[in-house]
Structures are given as C-alpha cells and as structure tokens.
Amino acid sequence: MINVLVADDELPAVEELAFLLGRDERIGTIHRASSGAEALRTLETESVDAVFLDIHMPALSGLDIARAISRSTSPPAVVFVTADEDCALEAFDLAAIDYLLKPLRAERLSRSVDRISELIKDGTPAPEMITVDLGSTTRMIRRDDVTYVQAQGDYARLHTAEASYLIRVPLSDLEQKWAEAGFIRIHRSYLIALNHVQHLKLSATGPSVAVAGAELPISRRHLPSVRDKLQSTRIRPQG
C-alpha cells in the first residue's frame, strides 16, 4: 500500500484529491495538510511514500517543500498539483515524477499512482524529461509517454496519448540517443517506442505497425530489423 500526503492551502482541493486517491485500491493512509509548515511536520512524524503538493501555498510553497525533502536520505516521490503550467521546468529540476494540472482527471491521477507504484516496486530512477515549447509556455513531458516520433524536416514531432509536440531535433539524432530506451526506426519518417506497439501487420499494401492506435508504415529496408525486435518482445505479425 502507498501512503500519501496531500498538501494544499485550499481545503476543498485537499478533500477532492484525497477522495480521488481513496478510490484507488493501491493507496493506503492519506495524510492531509493545509499549509507547507503542516506538510513538513507530517513528513517528520509519519511514514509517507509520496506527496501531492500544490505549488502556490503561502509562506512555504510546494517547491519549497520539495527542496526541503530532497535533502533527506529517502525522500518520498513528489507529484505537483497546480493550475499553473509555468513552474514545470523548476518542478522537474526537483526530480518530481509528475506534474498534474487542475482540474484533476481521475484517469490522469491513476497514471501518477502507476508511476509511484513502479518507483517503489522497482526502485526505478526518475524518468527522462523532455523540454517542449507551446507558444510562450515551456512544458516538460516524460520520454516514456512518447509513443512514436515523426520527422518534419529538421524537426521531430513527439506523439503522446494526449497531444503532440514539435522539437527542433532531427529524427536521426533521436534514433541514436533513444535506442537504449527502446525506440527503433521503422521508416525514414518514423521512430517508434517498442513498449507502445500493439501489432505488426503484413498485407498486400505493405507492412505496418500499430502504435497507440496509429497505423504507421514500415519501409522494406527496416522491416527485417523491426521484425527481429518485435519477435524478441513476442509481438507476432498479423496476416
């Protein structure tokens, strides 16, 4: 069971998040704090696996709390919960494992609990984060949320379940840098994440692979290596 602390200076926000977390059978004790000082006192006296922190709290902000607990020998996992996208860069500099935007969605919160569970169970290191620009806003996304990458000239478009993001990095550079993370080239225009592959399809119109609901072409040059990789992960071709 995962014991958590929810900290927000607005009581309704604390109760809403505690209610949503309480519906997850993986969650154990839920501690509540309505200020940064109360959150730190709770962390000193209780066993907490993860903290869900509002960023904008008076006196001690969520970022202040994260800085304080990062100095401990076994810090809890940190998830920021906020209506403000502008602090994402600083949040991930503090090794936050997730950044949730209000209003909260139950399915998005569940994915955060998935990440906490993985971290506790496997001792997984903090995920690699990627900086993306959306107009005047800078956001951070997790590399393991990227399902496939599409070449667009000197740029690459990163596709996730929720959106796509354009970064100024050639696909060939990502192919080399992300190979060890399970990304393989299937076409001059596509790089895919093996763990998001649903099936390989061989048909008269040419081979393709389904990745997170998208059907992507496989070039003849890349087909042998793609089949080898997918067979090693037990994904078999469909007729």
Key features?
LytR-like, Sig_transdc_resp-reg_receiver, Response regulator transcription factor, OB fold (Dihydrolipoamide Acetyltransferase, E2P), Rossmann fold, 5-stranded parallel beta sheet, 239 residues, LytTR_DNA-bd_dom
Describe, in plain words, how this protein is organized in 3D.
- There is one protein chain.
- The protein is of the alpha/beta class.
- It folds into 2 domains: 2-126, Response regulator (Rossmann fold); 142-232, OB fold (Dihydrolipoamide Acetyltransferase, E2P), CATH 2.40.50.
- Helix content is 29%, strand content 33%.
- The strands form 4 sheets. Strands 2-1-3-4-5 form a 5-stranded parallel sheet, sandwiched between helices.
- Strand 13 (197-201) and strand 14 form a beta hairpin.
- The longest helix is centred in the middle third of the chain and has 17 residues, at 106-122.
- It is elongated, with a radius of gyration of 20 Å.
- The N and C termini lie far apart (43 Å).
- The model has no long low-confidence stretch (mean pLDDT 87).
- Residues 130-232 form the HTH LytTR-type domain.
In summary, what is this structure?
The modification 4-aspartylphosphate is found at residue 54. With 239 residues, the chain is an alpha/beta fold.
